[in-house]
Design brief:
Strand order of the largest sheet: 4-3-5-6
Strand content: 15-25%
Radius of gyration: 25 Å
Order of helices and strands: EEEHEHEHEHHEHEHEHHEH
Helix content: 40-55%
CATH architecture of the largest domain: 3-Layer(aba) Sandwich
Shape: elongated
């Protein structure tokens, strides 16, 4: 049946074509990937496809990418530092009538003007083996050695300590913060288990962050964990009543340690939770 000259069910507004975004970089692509994720989070991703092309080192490879992008009618976002490659990409994109965004170039230009210094124009310069790199590696090793309550004698050396019930993102948060250079240890809490004495006797209590979560989210996380292990998802570990009791116990336990700062991680991404912890640690305020 036709309506107004169009077959019913083919309204382009109801079935928009998929839009394609190309991310192009001459190094690992970490910088542009993070920026793209943050930017695309502001839009509906249902009809967006992201294609990535990293470690691009020559014009021939770039030409192939741009030709394909033209066929996809894509938007190109790129982090190309070498002037010859960058200029070639821009010219080819213009020639083929597609939009190309220099994600980092404009910022580098403005920094060069402000600092009155010519940029090095070295791809991947942020990954050089400098003091900051080794500091991050040391922090990652520290987090691994002090994960899940291991080596409690080393807790006093931690910049940050995370405590919480099972599946409250202690390990992922520790790893994320360690990758930023923070020495992080985490200690599990459970009503039937005593935390190590070092947590109370040898540690600056203002460095301790208690993680809390609501019942619904914790049940889902524990059910997912049981399924990963091939176990029944309805075991006591994920039983809503048991989980509720654990959370109530945990809140009461935190109240016994008023110098600890408590962060609710319910429905929070790791990045957001980590930012909340660092903001609280650096300002001395409670996490929000």
């Amino acid at each position: 049946m036709e309506t107004g000259g169009r077959i019913k069910g083919t309204d382009p507004k109801k079935h928009p074509r998929k839009r394609v975004v190309y991310l192009v970089g001459e190094s690992t692509g970490e910088t542009i990937s993070k920026l793209a994720r943050a930017s695309l989070a502001q839009f509906s991703r249902e009809h967006v496809e992201v294609k990535t092309f990293f470690m691009v080192a020559d014009k021939h490879h770039l030409a192939q990418i741009i030709k394909q992008a033209a066929e996809d009618e894509a938007l190109i976002a790129f982090t190309i530092i070498q002037p010859a490659l960058r200029d070639f990409l821009i010219q080819e994109a213009e020639r083929r009538g597609i939009k190309a965004i220099d994600v980092i170039g404009d910022f580098i230009v403005q920094l060069s003007i402000f600092l009155e210094e010519k940029p090095a124009e070295i791809p991947g310069r942020q990954y050089i083996l400098d003091e900051d790199y080794y500091r991050r590696i040391e922090a990652i090793n520290f987090a691994v050695k002090h994960d899940d309550g291991k080596m409690p004698q080393g807790l006093k050396l931690a910049d940050l300590l995370l405590v919480g019930l099972s599946r409250t993102s202690k390990t992922p948060l520790s790893a994320y913060l360690a990758n930023q250079g923070w020495k992080v240890a985490n200690v599990p809490l459970h009503p039937d288990m005593d935390p190590p004495e070092e947590l109370f006797q040898q540690v600056d209590q203002h460095r301790v962050f208690g993680l809390i979560i609501d019942v619904e989210h914790l049940v889902k996380l524990r059910e997912a964990r049981l399924q990963q292990l091939g176990l029944e998802p309805y075991a006591k570990y994920a039983d809503p009543v048991t989980v509720c009791d654990e959370i109530e116990w945990c809140r009461a336990f935190y109240e016994q340690h008023p110098r600890w700062r408590v962060l609710d991680i319910s429905n929070r991404a790791i990045e957001e939770a980590a930012a909340g912890i660092l903001r609280a640690y650096q300002t001395g305020k409670k996490p929000t």
